[in-house]
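Loading example: each entry is read as two labelled lines plus one structure line.
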Amino acid sequence: MEAFLHQLFSGLASGGIYASLALALVMIYQSTNHINFAQGEMAMFSTYLAWSMINSGMPYWWAFLLTVIVSFVTGIIIERIIIRPVEHAPVLSIITVFVALLVIFNSVAGWVFTYTIKTFPSPFPQQPLFGNRYISSHELGSIGITLLVLVALFLFFRFTPLGLAMRAVAQNPLSSRLVGIRVGWMLALGWGLAAAVGAVAGMLVAPIVYLEPNMMSGVLLYAFAAALVGGIDNPFGAVVGGFMVGVLENLIGAYVIGTELKLTVALVLIVGVLLFKPSGMFGKVFVSRV
Amino acid sequence: MTALTTKATTADLVASRFAGMPLRAWKVIGFTMLLAGAVALPFLVSNYRVFQFNLVLIYAIVLLGLNILTGYNGQISLGHGAFYAIGAYSAAILMDHFNWPYWATLPIAGLVCFCFGFLFGLPALRLRGHYLALATFALAVAMPQILKYKHIEQWTGGVQGIVIMKPAAPFGLKITPDQWLYLFTLAVLLLAFAAGWNLLRGRVGRALVAIRDHPVAAEAMGVHSALYKTLAFGVSALFTGVAGALGAIVVQFVAPDSFAAGLSINFLIGIVIGGVASISGAFYGALFIQFVPNFADQISKAAPWAIYGVFLLAFVYVMPTGVAGFVRLAWNRIRRASGK
């Protein structure tokens, strides 16, 4: 029982990280219908930025904050300069651009920071909080931060004029433009937010998987699965999906098939959801007119 | 679509002669010279270069296969490395466990991959665009783990993989094994391209393009969309699997980590650089993915991928038709200029 609870909680913790990255994916998908294959590598790069700041002696939380801001700005710049020209291009071109971004971020990280594996500090104490035996404080902390991010985003989208404008653009870009919303900038803002949320996910996962240029490939796959399970156009669904996928991954890995086939679980989940319930649990069902 | 129409219209508009000779004759001469050059090549360069050019030929077969699916049929696959791996492992297992001769493994590898491709094509029917790319990407990322799976380890050799012997030249020919394998690969390539060309220029090719450009209209015209799409997946995997088997024989080694997601990304890069929906583009793409990393490696271990990325972006923005499109454009310019 104790082992089971332990697996459950550590599943919830990694689920929180998948949820953050899934949230970033949903942020971009919602407004542009693009699946950003480079999201994981962008998060990885942000994490390296945080690492070098911390290494130069900056306190953890300052580095955290600064990384989030830098990632936000970088996300906006990427949208404006690289994604904008292919916004209405055929799907293959868009996917090629995403793959190019993935490859560039990955190799530049390897180039600048080398491929040696680095440890990344956790801001939370070594000892488990409240004397419990099931969950380490980093796991508890990352669940907390994920929920915090979710609440902040919810408040932003629900209660600010800017959030309203962004939701309007996601729903109907044409009418939004007619009422004076600058659609292009809202999309860029979405990219910025996605990059910032991704950076948070990267910094939370790095203490667990260690920092190296390929650390995100597995996490990204789970985030895809999470976003799809929850419904790829629903931020709330992405978070629920993230926690579910995290728990599922851990329990199946521990009790059913062993850890070597964990990525295959993600593959089966992705293909399964796409086949049997493409809209996920909370997504909208799309009916296209011919 | 553009590729096909421009071909037809320019042939009609511009007189079908160039510098006094019929265009057809030019094509025959050019093709013969290329072929002669390709046959002579292994006897002119070092054994290591022969090996590299052999890989170019193998990649060209993969890119042709991927182009049938992604270029002509519009189904985006980021997971062809997985089919390449299945082909390679089929050949390696047949040679290692059953002592099959290397040439006999190719049809089996092709058949196995056709079945896998066809089966993967069935769920792919329900996925389009980004979703299909996502599903195939997941396949590519998961593939090394599947190959390492402990219950098939007795066949696949687990993490260590399988080492196979390089076949010597038959009939007492006085050439090195590398030269012989190159010529063997060249023969397979000619066969593959003849098959691919015949497939794409006729009824099937038109159906594939129609499905890509307007699925609903294609269905209305009586094209059996589901059948063609799954077949395209199967045939594409077949080409890739045969190439994978050749790759295993040439490299003499298969291991799970040589079939990571990077391989599939490599293939995508190949068709984008070479030219989407073009047959000749497969060669340009193959040359690119074989030789550019070699040059770039001298700068840094990470440099090849950085350069790949930059090239990819540049091609998408500046030359979406790839090198093949550029060559076609240049050729038409020359002809028009000389026609005046």
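The domain at 2-339 of chain B is CATH 1.10.3470 (ABC transporter involved in vitamin B12 uptake, BtuC).
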